[in-house]
Prior knowledge:
By secondary structure, chain A is α/β, with parallel strands linked by helices. Chain A has 13 helices and eight strands. Chain A has helices at residues 14-25, 39-56, 64-68, 77-81, 95-108, 124-128, 162-174, 191-207, 213-228, 233-240, 245-263, 271-285, 290-305; strands at residues 6-10, 29-33, 71-74, 86-89, 114-117, 137-142, 151-156, 178-182. The interface between A and B is large, with 105 and 106 residues.
Amino acid sequence: MQQPMRIAVIGAGTIGASWTALFLAAGHEVAASDTATGAEARLREQVRANWDDLVALEIAQGSADNALARLSFHEDAAEAARAADIVQENTPERIDLKRDILARIESTLPPEALILSSTSGIMPSDLQRGMTHPERLVIGHPFNPPHLIPLVEVVGGSRTSSAAIEAAMRFYTGLGKQPIRVDREITGHVANRLQAALWREAVYLAAEGVASVGDIDRAMTAGIGIRWALMGPHLTFHLGGGAGGMAAFMENLGPAVESWWEDLGEASLDQPTRRAIIEGVEDETEGRCIDDLTRARNAALLRLLAVDRTV
Amino acid sequence: MQQPMRIAVIGAGTIGASWTALFLAAGHEVAASDTATGAEARLREQVRANWDDLVALEIAQGSADNALARLSFHEDAAEAARAADIVQENTPERIDLKRDILARIESTLPPEALILSSTSGIMPSDLQRGMTHPERLVIGHPFNPPHLIPLVEVVGGSRTSSAAIEAAMRFYTGLGKQPIRVDREITGHVANRLQAALWREAVYLAAEGVASVGDIDRAMTAGIGIRWALMGPHLTFHLGGGAGGMAAFMENLGPAVESWWEDLGEASLDQPTRRAIIEGVEDETEGRCIDDLTRARNAALLRLLAVDRTV
């Protein structure tokens, strides 16, 4: 259990609401800020919905009402940041906007407080430019929905201190997350690059008519996705090498893998490709709306996360 | 429930033993063949081990002994194929060997019987060359371990009849599998291409020192792998588009994805890279042996497969 802290959640959309529920579940006080009209009401409503998930996973205890008593809302980010121990920033993905917010936060934030950014697309070194205390800026990039998915990617910029990175790793681990340490800032961090690499081939195969969009998705859910929920790609191939492990895999299957790499396709999201993928998804979803799919996905996610996936 | 059939399992190593257990669980009679010394004893032993998994998943009922009474073993593939309704071929991945086996099978197999090949690397049109009845040759490529993983890739060659492909799809569906239809023969079919595309980026990131092998694997198991066990890549991005679905995703995030595609790395399995990956896996597995990891993986797989992952 972490010492109760005061955490500022700057940007209280879907990601911010997800973080807020998780921070409240861990016993922290949350000072949220968002400039959108009606943001506070929406935040409280979303935290209630997320709370039910967290109770189901035994991460949260007690009622949402009790927890929400520890949430305060501030239109001004500087007010939310006042006296905070940690900031989790989730504003829109625009560098000018984020730099402006960071300056306002730093005007009231204690100098030793940690600033964590949920950004998926902006490099930490770019965020640090102009900061008074750039050494405490760390990216903590979550995966949707952040209150449920354990992964957080932790990345520092050129001016981030190693103490700040260690503090970010400890903070997320203490929340029950599984943070990974990205040692070099790079577009897309790690997980989005892996996703993009796979999706490029998926789009290529669909565009070339090798299989339908639905069947390509099923190759994942009925096959490789099940294995990857338990073991990452390296460990999967380590087992694929038999008794000799990865060394045997490299020896026996390395040349085959390299020949597959050479054969992989290129894809571009031109109009015909977009149309093919969009129509393929329509066939796959058979008229189900996004809300229905999202509810069903979250319910399945709760069932999956309740299982011990430890290998 | 399928009508009980006589199925010839040609090549009774790990894959063959896995298929055998599944076919017996569905009530079929299995005639297995393998020329390796001690193959029959090993097959019976592996079927017993697989049987326990299938009982745990409520796919098999009754004792392994009762089921094994429906298994016969033949040194000669032609004898196993005699009077069979379906052949599942799992011999080593060598075209000359497989062609030779197919000729011997066809010498005794009824002409209307279906021949399914588990090959991952050989094109069906290459297997068909020289066959008496090439129209009944279909690839049914399973994923390890085949008695547990639902995915089977179904691919025909240039001379395969559509009736044979339909029959293969029906057969695997009837076994409780989730077959997908690959409409064009291509190296690696679908799933191994997707795996290879992702692993290329994973190897690149490890080789460049962006993250450790263990942390890259954790990006999968703690994050994207959990989601992919429920929804394939297209459906995942369909939800990522919000209320507008895939069309909105393409519009809003298409350019970002294309820029990520441009930024993805190249990898080669040269000696320094092999060493880095092998050492990274050693760090990740902390001295655990392959047997221990495999046991733990299979146990976790059984827990995962018992969950309703339907979205």
